[in-house]
Amino acid sequence: MTTGGFDVVVVGAGPAGATTARGLARRGLRVLLVDRARFPRSKVCGCCLNPRALATLARIGLGALVETLGAEPLTGLDLAAGRRRATLDYPLGAALSRDALDAALAAEAVAAGAEFLPGASAALAPGGVRLTLSDAAREVRARFVVSATGLADGLFPAEARAAPTARSRVGAGTILDAAPDGYAPGRIFMACGRGGYVGLVVLEDGRLDVAAALDPAAVREAGGAAAAAAAIVASTRLPDVPGLAASRWRGTPALSRSPAKVVVGSVFRVGDSAGYVEPFTGEGIAWALAGGETLAATLADDPDPAGRWERGHRRIVRDRQLACRTVARVLRSPAMTSMMAAALEFRPGLARPLLSAMHRD
């Protein structure tokens, strides 16, 4: 069955997709937001909204959302590598679980006038998308399609998806029911070791979010992501996390990737599917929100949206990923990581220029 009448179909209701859908609906466009999951749902992802992400939320009229959801303010970072542990005091934004954040952003898109269809898979079709629901299939026509399908880039056929870069790490994560002793709310704890790094943050409800970027070889050698991450934490001076290796972990495709084009015909990539590098303190969500804000304005207002989005994405996302690429290279070397942690242990202020560059709006 074919149905029509939408200006834009947005596939993927994470921060990038929901922000795009809300921005378009607020400008009077008829928008369909689609996601294969039903909300609320968990994500393999960190939970940090850094200062850049908070600034974007404030700019689009959702500045009060974080406080309403009870987000935990983040006031510092503990960086551990081997026997070194640096304690940095620096405003890093807020911690908020992805199940709460994503559900709230999708609800805001609906409140703005978008139609939301969860529990539906999507594939490209001539002039729109083909949706498969639990009980039926239908095709939806639209002027534009937005692919906000994450690292999997699943709206496109396999041969057209964003290819991972060489030596890309994979993501993995779990959420523990409670934070153990030594993990206080309001701080990001990062353990760096051979094979990757692990971030640990206490959520607004007291659970412990654990997100890792791991070398595939380290995962294979350890017998799984849980064991690899637990070994990295144990190799540092961070407190023990009981049950970490036995917890249920979920993984992601390769993290660092870049598609050949962010616009293919009338399909516009945004968020992780438009290109990604390893994040550290909430950069991924910040890129997603800023991308959604800009893409909504581009599709609604510009007679040449493809050209403008190519330029806009390069300016607000791709260029800003440079700092994360630089840090990723450092963290791939245990010796350099240990030297960095040692330097910051005695001179924490050395981290301020880098953190400022990563978070500046």
Quick recap of the structure?
The protein contains eleven helices and 18 strands. The protein has helices at 15-26, 51-59, 65-68, 98-111, 216-222, 225-234, 283-301, 305-318, 322-331, 334-346, 352-359; strands at residues 2-11, 31-35, 48-49, 72-81, 84-95, 115-118, 121-125, 128-132, 137-147, 163-164, 170-176, 187-193, 196-202, 208-214, 250-254, 257-258, 263-264, 267-269. The protein starts with a strand and ends with a helix.
Strand and helix map with partners:
Blueprint: E1 2-11, H1 15-26, E2 31-35, E3 48-49, H2 51-59, H3 65-68, E4 72-81, E5 84-95, H4 98-111, E6 115-118, E7 121-125, E8 128-132, E9 137-147, E10 163-164, E11 170-176, E12 187-193, E13 196-202, E14 208-214, H5 216-222, H6 225-234, E15 250-254, E16 257-258, E17 263-264, E18 267-269, H7 283-301, H8 305-318, H9 322-331, H10 334-346, H11 352-359
Parallel strand pairs: 1-2, 1-9, 2-6, 4-12, 9-18
Antiparallel strand pairs: 3-5, 4-5, 7-8, 8-9, 10-16, 11-14, 11-15, 12-13, 13-14, 17-18
Helix pairs in contact: 1-4, 1-7, 2-7, 5-6, 7-8
